[in-house]
Amino acid sequence: MKRQNLPLYAIALAILIVGLTFAGVPVQTILVGLLALACPLMMLFMMGGHDDSDRHSDHRQ
Question: Is the whole-model pTM more than 0.70?
Fold first, then answer.
């Protein structure tokens, strides 16, 4: 995940929350869902900037 895509993900999440609210989903249910997703989302955001290209390259000269 690239850092430049983070604002797009935030906008998509905001649109989803507003859409669910307008669809009649209670705010408490949305908050519980966000709380359940907090750990995996934080892992994606925190580990997304790491690049695995070093692991695939051949370091032998």
Answer: no
